[in-house]
Amino acid sequence: MVKAPNYYIYGHPLARACIWLPRGTKYYAIPQLTGRDISTIMIEQKPGYILSSVYLDINFSEGEMLADLNRLIAYANVNRLKLVIGVDSNAHSSLWGSEETNRRGEILEEWLLTNGLFVANVGDSPTFTGRGSNTIVDITVSTMDIQIRDWAVLSKMAKITDHVPITFNIPKSMTKVIKSRSLAKCDWHRFRHELSKQGEIQRYDLWSVDRLNAAVDFLENKIISALDIVAPLKESRIKVRTVKPWSSELSSAYKTYIKSRRLHNDGDPVTYATMKDARREFRRLHKQHQKESFQEFTEELQENNHVSKFVKNKLDPKPPIGMLDTADGGITMNGQEVLDILFDKHFPGSTKVKPAPSTNKMLAFGRKKQNKVKFITRQRVRDALGSFGKGKASGDHFKPIVLQNLDDSTVDDLVLIYKVSLLLGVVPDSWKKSRVVFIPKSGKPAGDPKSMRPITLNSFLLKAMEKVILWEMESRGLPDLHDKQFAFKTGTSIDEALTAAVDKIEQGVLNQQYTLGVFLDISGAFDNIEINACVEGARSCGLPDMVVEWLKSLLTGREVTSTINNESQTRFLLKGTPQGGVWSPKLWNMAINHMIASANKGPIKCIGFADDMLVLVSGPDPNTLVSLAQATVNNLQRQANAVGLSYNNQKTEVVLFTRKRVNLDAIDKIIMGGKPLSFSTKARYLGILLDSNLTFKEHLKEKISKTKRCLFVLHSLAGKNWGLLPKTLRVAYVSIARPKLTYGAHIWQHYVKSKEALKGLNSVQRLALVLLSHVHRSTPTAGLEVIWHLKPLDIFLEEIALRTFVRIQPKIKQITHHQKGHISILMKTLDSHKLTELVRLSDKITHKHLDRHYAVRDFGTYKLDPPEEPDTLRVYTDGSLIRNKAGCGIHVDHPTSSFTGCEHLGRDASVFQAEILAIHRAADMLLDQRNKTIVFKSDSQSALRALTNKTIKSSLVKECADSLNRLAANNTVRLQWVKAHIGIHGNEKADAAAKQGALTHALGCEPWLPVPHNKLNKMVSAILTKKWQDRWTHLDSCRQTRMALPCVGPRSSNFMQTLSREGACKTIQLLTGHANLRRHQFLRKEVTNPSCRICDSREETPEHLLIKCPDLKPLRQSLWKKGNPRGFPRVEDISKFAQCELMKSMLTAFS
Question: In the prediction, which pLDDT does 11 show?
């Protein structure tokens, strides 16, 4: 559907003209010709034509009435386009079948005649049927060069409004047939067999660029030929969501309504009343039908786990690419002009003419040369191909799933091509071709080319080679970039960048001084940077010349193609890096590293995160700060211009951070591009809204609003007794809605302790809790939080802040933080709970583990212990945790001898660490073995997966992997998973040894092992859970819930998530006491007698019904396995009691 963007897409409810289109129709929206009373699109056809829907307000004057039509016809005439308009004219004329012509009809007749338009209406069937009135006000007009056929009024068709549907045929646009392969059920075994029959690429002692391109063409054709056999191209069909058919009852009501409308044509009040009754019944049934259809839709969402996608589409709708504004103030006329503008805007300097090819390099492929690229192995290439998602979109014919199923011979061909390509310093021509998809940015004005984001889809054959080279360079140790660059660096994240920025701002604000911040925005950074700047940056960072030359070839002569509907265009790029390329982020960092380094001098701090740069300087005098910042900005401008970049003055913000009163007009301004930049009171940096007083009030207000919007979208998916289940909604809140609020909490959480902030947080949490199940409006939030095990948001924000700080704290030691700043506050919190030393001992690292000389069999394949060769050493390992004490055990089994050992690991070790250390100790113990087959058998899949990952995140895992590699240097080493506790002799021996090790008395001080990061997170969570427990215990309210749930914990939530919405609702009523029981109704002055309706002896409360009511004792005993408990029953028993027939009648639904 196309509607006015200002009135529909952006939420305005008053749009009066729209166009509905079948899904899959190729069209452009024209926002410049779309408004409250007009919607216009262009359908792709040669010659193309415009389709428009127009509403002419009956109260408009002559000039106002024709304003939209005049703009429309002018656009069509200038661009020589055909035109079809559907008009609700509110005018009468014999030209379109009316009995008489009024003044509005005369005006419209003259306009149609003047502009050479043809009225397609046929006959005198009324198009509007109102009370006592049947008129013709809806007309269809077109330019003379369009033949509209079969025009008719569908008087017998169902209609919800008082206008009658009109149908007609217009020439169809020719659509391109799209073919695709079905890879989901492909026979990959047969695919590999077909590949093996097609031979290998030819080997040469002397390689050239032409021979390299020929080898790549042979390889690609080989893969395509095999695919054509196992997954041939077929015409793709667009899947359209089916509409639920009408029920017989609804169809019958519709026929009755239509029949009554025909009888009402004589204006008889009796027939009018009959028609009204029939219409009312039809609308009621139709509304009910729509409700049922939507309820079925929510069930489909739940079954298919598409809730997140639904919420995203609702909150961030992506409009289609429409007509764009041109530089001269006009509008593009066709798809080619749209592509021209998009390419010129996003790929400046690109050309439609293919540049001259480079010289044909020659390579003698000798052993000495091959030694330089020996790191390109079959295993590494397979690892690189396997790192991509199977169904990711590709720039060529091959999705990753195809490349991940290549046979060994084809992978060896690919290894050879990679080696030759790198040694030649040339990227094959076919790999330089890519597709560009333009994605509309959310919240940006329609028609602006800058509101589109180009996404480049490259060949995965190329991206895999990029990864192999990058992994090798990282393993050798890429040179360290400046420590104020935080993006695209291993071990750093956006959290460190935010910490560094806010820490610098705090130095001025908290010292009663000033901090000047200049938030710089680079225009089209990745698409505009000069290729030579990337090459020189890579060379200055110490990359080998061979790699530098290959990267230069990667960036030079790239060919990109974009298609919008049926229009395509190809450009050749002369600058920029491919967005989505593996090396692009690294090259960007290297190219601008000198800019960051030169800016960080003296009191100036310049922080870089991708294309966002922030210049900060603190001190007592604002004008001095402006002078210092101005020099830095000038220097950055010169350096940016030298590498083809420029700063966007309109998006650059200047903020003077201080809590002192200051007259900004009296302070000098930063000059950029010859224009002074006005001071702003706030700026957005990496998703955080920084206000000049550093209070974060506006940031929190904005985040609360966004979170609530998300919750309201989720609320549309659930009613009182229908919709998403509580479990699904809780997961959606925790994973979709709440993260919108908690992002960046470590820098702003301690600033939001005011009553206003806490009130806002509480309102968000309450909306979420009410969403999970329909509860009484007076139900306290604190009780619901305990029932659903959702920490109060102020406590949860503190937990998120501490967990983030625990992760980044080892990396921010060089920051000189203010004693009252966010870093000091978080460090004091860690100190108060004696966690600082444990954080320092954390084993969290980031290490690339590329070469694995040991094998790991598929998990889950060998549940039993398979037989081995007679001389095989079988090593069983296990870990154990008993009463918070860890131990590891080893059992070595050999036909001639066996050995069993154990080790105590102390209190701070985890089971995972015990499992890893058992394998580590066994490998070290066997290092003197030679030419043996050694099989390690472990029942821990997590340990085996950690040892197979390419990126190792634990120092203990790294040491274990290194020991296995040393052992595998002289032996054949395999790791194998076995199922635990099924009677495997060796596994039982290792398990007993591990338990013995856990129970052994400790000798020496602890911790003996590095503290696992996940254990630190659990300790932080336990600290904040205890804080929540203290608040819950000393709460003055929620007496009933505290009796049922005295301790906060996940047990109640886990059970509640298994219930239906109705079951959860009734259970919560009894848990909280806020139910339709006499005691609660008496307090609300709804009844005069609070006595129990069953025994009439005491007040009717949940406690009385669940424990004390004598008449309900038999019911309780029949429902509860343990009979009548002494204290409050378990949540499970309360739920059974709440859902019995007697309680269902007492706990009636409420509004």
Answer: 35
